Automatic annotation (TrEMBL):
Keywords, in A-Z order: ATP-binding, Helicase, Hydrolase, Metal-binding, Nucleotide-binding, Nucleus, Zinc, Zinc-finger
Gene source species: Selaginella moellendorffii
Lineage of source species: Eukaryota, Viridiplantae, Streptophyta, Embryophyta, Tracheophyta
Name recorded for this polypeptide: SNF2 family DNA-dependent ATPase
Main location: nucleus
Gene Ontology terms, MF aspect: ATP binding; ATP-dependent activity, acting on DNA; helicase activity; hydrolase activity, acting on acid anhydrides, in phosphorus-containing anhydrides; nucleic acid binding; zinc ion binding
Alphabetized PANTHER family for the sequence: HELICASE-LIKE TRANSCRIPTION FACTOR, TRANSCRIPTION TERMINATION FACTOR 2-RELATED
Length: 851
């Protein structure tokens, strides 16, 4: 289990950093008198000009090249000037694109310190200005001048980026898929995504933030980079729809519709319905010329004369390479079977012993499916093909720019590129750098430009950082969530997901063992806290927390020697065994960054003091004469560094996908072991479900492979037919078990045992409607991804999620940590300093152990 090192900044720092209060629309006027230009999505500074002889409230609008564009309209300047003059607010604006020869629209973003938010809002409301997408009032314990404490304040969240970018009135459009290939009907939001993707793919316009200057030069308005070479059109982007909204079908529709030499279906503007009484005035709604409320048919997608033809050429590249995790491969194959006509698309799976080694043969397929690990093969034919299109499914996997599979994906030759992920930003905005590199988005694919333009302003809390990130995501990504509403209705009508925390009382024997272990562990950790040696004894701390969690599942998962060790008085010299450290690494490696390079660890290793690093980063540190751990300064040698024993990236993925925790499996004989309280509770709930409806199917998640094995016997004894999916299972066995569980035939399995990390992404399990989480995972996002395997498009029943939590245990406190992490995830746009991470680590240990 990992202590999280990627949370948000300290609350004290948050109080002193400006946050986004909201935005308002305005006009930049007087363009005819100034040489500067403000393009759509172009950034600009608002500079006060109090000596202006025509208007003492004037704001000059200065673009990224330092040229004046014009002035903010007087009506808006009158309300904004006092805020800036009194130091209550900072302003930033982005061009909105609509205008004439003498004026252009822009969106003005208002930033203020948390303590000033209410004052800023009140001032603007006095002038009749209503901010769009406002955030909540000041943080706790901040005196707002009204005689009472403020309410909770949060900084702009990751989803706020997408919410604010969709707040502007953009024309909604849709496109039908090629029904000679796609046999399923697309939902409205999928048709809209298809229209957006086709237009992005076929555009020959300059990429976002680039403008033509004169007749031969091109300038990037975001970075001020000037080039004599015309930047290549950005054909592709990020499809970031929430998990379970049918991204796979949308991509299949794109492949089938926008194919070489295609005659494309028309793109239609969507008529917004007139608003009834009590809603927004109809005058503010987007209108089309069709008075009957039907969609207006537009011309087919235009072909631009500025650059190469838009529609894929009939004699050009044909194939789309879809790259996905091994666990998702079978889902793509089943989706293809469900949604396309037989022989509609020519398909090949580049994985396993039957894959072809001939590049020309691969180039002749419409779709080639492969996995990320296949990209790292030496002399792979995938690298020799000129692809029409690349699709990275679960694209957040390449968030480490230095990983070999990331470099291989970036180097592939293709005309169009798509990153498909419901979580484009997992820990911080830095995760996007790899996606910029994959998309070949110049110059933001260069780390120096990315750091200077996006990452550094975000990390330092500069208001321009969020505005730039919002503008960037607005230009290249599309995101909708299950909660997104269109005309007051949710995007998709999914049945509800009901999450229930089901308390489980440990048996008297298990309670006695647990209390003894927790008491000994608490005393030990208190000594570490008193001595300031928590980080030096991190291995022992993690081991104690891990074993307490295992006792909550089943006492047989905690070996006797571990129990005896907890009573040792020589705690300052205790160390975890190499075997345990390797198992910790298998669990921790993906959950936080290397403290040296601040990126996900590449070739992860763990030290005897239980700190995780990139192998190369740590090797460079140990080249110095003073060979110490960078985190706790313990002396290290080569014998103190361990790897998980998992294969390298170049080796076969069927073996390297073994991510679940092994928990001394080789030492535990599960046959004849008495069921624990949790297992008894699970069987009881499954039996009650079967009594109500024998056809109801359930999935059972655990992060511990031993726990899954311990459940098998009681399931068999109770007469349940089940299948299993865990790390290390071959692709063919995975597919066989998936198909068996999906079957609606009488006698098919009704229970699916799943390893949380091996099966938490990419699977479609809508056949089930019950989810049992046997143990809480440290990172709540992992659990939510697992739940969404069941709660997604195609689900027709209410989804019931039961979280089995041992009462009066570390698991209850882990739920509190999860809630904090959910809050941290909302403001994880920057990075924490090393000392802040250590502080948060210690605080979480104290919470978990009640110290």
């Amino acid at each position: 289990m990992a202590v999280d090192f990627s949370a948000a900044a300290d609350e004290e720092d948050a109080i002193n950093e400006p946050i986004l209060v909201g935005s308002l629309m305005a006009e930049v006027r007087g363009l005819a008198h100034h040489r500067g230009k403000l393009s759509s999505d172009g950034l600009a500074q608002l500079v006060r000009d109090p000596t202006n002889r025509f208007d003492t409230n004037a704001f000059r609008v200065i673009n990224e090249r330092g040229e004046q564009v014009g002035y903010i309209q007087k009506e808006k300047a009158k309300s904004l000037a006092p805020l800036v003059d009194k130091g209550l607010a900072q302003l930033q604006c982005i061009g909105a694109g609509n205008g004439s020869s003498n004026r252009v629209s822009c969106e003005v973003f208002v930033f203020s310190l948390p303590a000033m938010v209410d004052a800023v809002r009140d001032h603007l409301e006095y002038y009749g200005e209503q901010l769009r997408s406002p955030y909540d009032p000041p943080v706790d314990n901040v005196d707002d001048g009204r005689g009472g404490g403020g309410s909770d304040q949060r900084a702009p969240s990751i989803d706020d980026i997408f919410e604010s970018m969709t707040a502007g009135a953009k024309i909604r459009q849709r496109m039908e898929a090629d029904n000679s290939v796609i046999k399923s009907s697309l939902m409205q939001h999928q048709k809209e995504a298809l229209a957006w993707m086709v237009q992005r793919e076929n555009s020959s316009a300059l990429p976002p933030f680039w403008e033509k200057k004169g007749t031969t030069m091109y300038t990037n308005t975001l970075t001020n980079v000037t080039s004599a070479k015309r930047p290549e059109s950005l054909r592709g982007g990020i499809l970031a729809d929430d998990m379970g909204l049918g991204k796979t079908l949308t991509v299949l529709a794109l492949i089938a519709t926008n194919k070489p030499g295609a005659v494309l279906p028309p793109i239609e503007d969507i008529k917004e319905p007139e608003q009834s009484q009590g809603g927004e005035p109809a005058s503010k709604k987007l209108k089309t010329s069709d008075d009957k409320g039907k969609a207006k048919t537009a011309a087919p997608v235009p072909v631009s004369n500025d650059g190469p033809p838009c529609v894929p050429a009939a004699d050009g590249p044909r194939g789309t390479l879809v790259i996905c995790p091994l666990s998702v491969l079978s889902n793509w194959e089943s989706q293809l079977k469900d949604h396309t006509y037989p022989a509609g698309l020519k398909v090949h799976k580049y994985h396993g012993p039957n894959r072809t080694a001939n590049a020309r043969t691969l180039a002749d397929y419409d779709i080639v499916f492969t996995t990320y690990n296949m990209l790292t093969e030496r002399n792979s034919p995938l690298k020799k093909v000129h692809w029409l299109r690349l699709v990275l499914d679960e694209a957040h996997i390449i968030k480490n720019p230095r990983a070999q599979q990331t470099k291989s994906a970036v180097a592939l030759n293709a005309d169009r590129r798509w990153a498909v992920t419901g979580t484009p930003i997992q820990n911080s905005a830095k995760d996007l750098l790899s996606l910029m590199q994959f998309l070949h988005f110049e110059p933001l694919n260069e780390q120096s430009f990315w750091t200077k333009t996006i990452q550094k302003p975000l990390t330092s809390g500069e208001p321009v950082g969020f505005a730039r990130l919002q503008g960037l995501m607005s230009s290249i990504s599309l995101r909708r969530t299950k909660e997104t509403k269109v005309n007051g209705k949710k995007l998709v009508d999914l049945p509800p997901k009901i999450i229930t925390v089901f308390p489980v009382d440990l048996s008297p024997e298990d309670r006695s063992l647990y209390d003894k272990m927790e008491k000994d562990g608490r005393n030990m950790i208190r000594r570490f806290l008193d001595n300031g040696t928590v980080t030096k004894n991190y291995a022992v701390v993690l081991q104690m927390i891990l074993r307490l969690r295992q006792i909550c599942d089943h006492t047989s998962m905690c070996p006797a020697e571990i129990v005896n060790m907890s009573t040792s008085s020589d705690t300052d010299t205790q160390a975890a065994s190499p075997e345990l450290l390797k198992k910790m690494l298998a669990t921790l490696g993906d959950d936080f960054d290397c403290p040296i390079c601040l990126a996900p660890p590449s070739g992860a290793v763990i030290t005897s003091c239980a700190h995780v690093f990139c192998r190369r980063c740590l090797e460079k540190v140990l080249e110095d004469e003073d060979k110490q751990c960078p985190m706790c300064h313990e002396e290290l040698s080569e014998d103190d560094i361990f790897s998980s024993g998992k294969p390298d990236e170049e080796e076969d993925e069927e073996l390297s996908n073994k991510n679940d925790v092994e928990d001394d499996d080789d030492k535990i004989d599960v046959k004849g072991v008495k069921p624990s309280a949790k297992i008894n509770a699970l069987i009881s709930m499954l039996e009650k479900t079967r009594a109500k409806d024998p056809n109801i199917k359930s999935v059972v998640f655990s992060q511990f492979s031993t726990m899954l094995k311990l459940i098998e016997g009681p399931l068999q004894k109770a007469g349940f037919k089940f299948v299993k999916l865990e790390g290390g299972m071959s692709a063919s066995k995975r597919e066989e078990n998936m198909e068996a569980f999906k079957s609606t035939r009488s006698g098919s399995p009704t229970v699916f045992l799943l390893s949380l990390k091996a099966a938490g992404v990419g699977l479609n399990l809508v056949t089930a409607s019950n989810v049992f989480m046997m143990d809480p995972w440290w990172n709540p996002a992992v659990e939510e991804q697992a739940m969404d395997r069941v709660h997604r498009l195609g689900q027709t029943r209410d989804v019931h999620v039961f979280r089995l939590i041992a009462t009066d245990s570390i698991e209850e406190r882990l739920l509190q940590v999860q809630e904090k992490k959910r809050a941290y995830a909302q403001i994880a746009l920057g990075k924490e300093a090393s000392e802040q991470r250590k502080k948060k680590c210690v605080e979480e240990v104290k919470l978990l152990m009640k110290c």
